[in-house]
Write a structure and sequence with these properties.
heterodimer, A: 114 residues, mainly beta, seven-stranded mixed beta sheet, four-stranded antiparallel beta sheet, 0% helix, 48% strand, B: 114 residues, six-stranded mixed beta sheet, 12 strands, globular
Chain lengths: 114, 114
């Protein structure tokens, strides 16, 4: 398929565990975004990459959240020492170039922290 | 700073009736505005976007939206609802500048009654 893919689709973690969420953007897309969507809410911005450069991480809620895109394609969002408030759907989106391009969203990873 | 307000977290219409989903925004610069639809357990799909061209924007599946600067609104309409339109709808804004990310409203759940 040519869309954005994310894995795993569902993740259950015990409080305190580390998790890693993967995003495969559309091939050739320069920009990659991570959003967090709490139950019943709209997505909220976490971080933005242009190729391998992380240009904006202002939305990351704490230093337990870390994202990388080392080769400018696949991205990983890592959450260390998960807390119950981290339970949410994590959405990845990519766009061809930079701003004003349509962002294409993946299906999301639903994280439940027990 | 940008923000989006979606009036009505739940809207119900009868099949064949007009759909009207409300969105108001605030932005310090001319905005770029988007409507996305989210079906259960799926990512967000772009319905339409406004990027300072025509104020009446036509999208997929018969939806359209009109940008009204004086009212700071970008309401989504469809003349005749189909059962398949039942989903959650999100309005989003981007200022097109350094804030490349989208700022979303809290969403409107549309129910279509037979």
């Amino acid at each position: 398929g040519a869309g954005v893919s994310q894995s795993p689709r569902y993740k259950v973690a015990k409080r305190g565990q580390d998790v890693a969420l993967r995003c495969d953007p559309i091939s050739g897309h320069v920009s990659l975004f991570w959003y967090q969507q709490a139950l019943g809410q709209g997505p909220e911005f976490l971080t933005y990459f242009q190729n391998e450069a992380q240009l904006d991480k202002s939305g990351l809620p704490s230093d337990r959240f870390f994202a990388e895109r080392p080769e400018g394609s696949v991205s990983t969002l890592k959450i260390q020492r998960t807390q119950q408030e981290d339970s949410a759907v994590y959405l990845c989106a990519s766009s061809f170039r930079t701003f004003q391009e349509t962002q294409y969203f993946g299906p999301g990873t639903r994280l439940l922290v027990l | 700073a940008q923000s989006v307000t979606q009036l009505g977290s739940h809207v119900s219409v009868s099949e064949g009736a007009l759909v009207l989903l409300r969105c108001n925004y605030s932005s310090s610069v001319p905005p770029y505005l988007f409507w996305y639809v989210q079906y259960p357990n799926q990512g967000l799909q772009l319905l339409l976007k406004y990027t300072s061209a025509a104020t009446l924007v036509k999208g997929i599946n018969g939806f359209e939206a009109e940008f009204k600067k004086s009212e700071t609104s970008f309401h989504l309409t469809k003349p005749s609802a189909h059962m398949s339109d039942a989903a959650e709808y999100f309005c989003a804004v981007s200022d097109g500048g350094s804030a490349r990310q989208l700022t979303f409203g809290s969403g409107t759940q549309l129910t279509v009654l037979p």
